[in-house]
Write a structure and sequence with these properties.
This protein has 356 residues and is of the alpha/beta class. The protein folds into two domains: 116 residues, no CATH class; 191 residues, no CATH class. It is 50% helix and 13% strand. Strands 1, 4, 5, 6, 7 and 8 form a six-stranded mixed sheet that branches. Strand 5 and strand 6 form a beta hairpin. The chain is globular and about 70 Å long.
Amino acid sequence: MRGDDLQQGAVFSYISAEQRVPQDHPLRAIRRMVDEALGSLSGHFGTLYARGGRASIAPEKLVRALLLQALYSVRSERQLMEQLDYNLLFRWFVGLNMDDAIWDVTVFTKNRERLIAGEVSERLLLAVVEQAHARHLLSQEHFTVDGTLIQAWANRRSFREKADPPTRGSGVGGKKLLRDTHESTTDPEARLYKKSAAAAAVPSYLGHVLTENRNGLVVRARTTQSSTTAEREAALAMLDRMAAARGKRITLGADKAYQDDAFLQDLRRRKVVPHVAEYEPNPSWPSFLTEQERTDPGFAVSQRKRKLVEKVFGWAKLDRALRQVKLRGLKRVDWMMQLIAAAHNLRRMQKLLAPV
């Protein structure tokens, strides 16, 4: 068969897959938003790939496949390749023809490393947030922050004493903590941590999101090593990242874990009004909010809107990667956190923009 006949056959098979997808299918709207976001990243993709050498997986197809994995709770890359082999809906979304060969799973994961090194998921999240802003789906003044424990791909029994522990620890007064003296042989950057007194300490990271209060869309996401101060430090870091685009006074809702005098002072210096939940008055833990902040009419509204950020974590951890992430190392886990946040926004925007 001639080359042009082969090309026509490929076009015919792709059109057939396109026609098989119902016009009102949610993935149609999501794909349009993904195409728009990836179009803005095309210049960045060019810097990640060499001009010569063997042909590689197109980064746009790679990102679409990873988004499908997040949206449809596919447990592994191997299962994702199996789905792409026979699922016409997945092939259409990624941009594969019905007779295209599926990538080897090892090649797929190696190409994913290039996207991780290029911080593609964070750029994708920001591009999706820009679309939400253009469609007037974002609040520009009212936000909520929260964190969640992400179980690492490691076991408690993998923690061993360090060969060269530091002479001065990271605790108060230089006290040596467990993270100073021990580390996991499986994932050295994971730490034993628990968010509640009743739970057992597990190897983990902490995931953080900053959501806006109108529709609960994630505007910033971040992953840190687990610690008692990580949530407040991550909140300030995310606020600083969006400061250039803000330029106005905003409010920030949060739970009692953020009720800390130094943190509230940092918020005030950034012209952020703290709407942080308070403990019941007691001698051992005073209230650090001013009377004006406590009686602000928006305080109660911010506390009611806090449930929107919990919906993000519920969606991401119900049967998806953030319950126990299968990537090792802080950079890789942070990359996955950003990708899950982008997938959540795409799903949420599709519902908000769907015709009634």
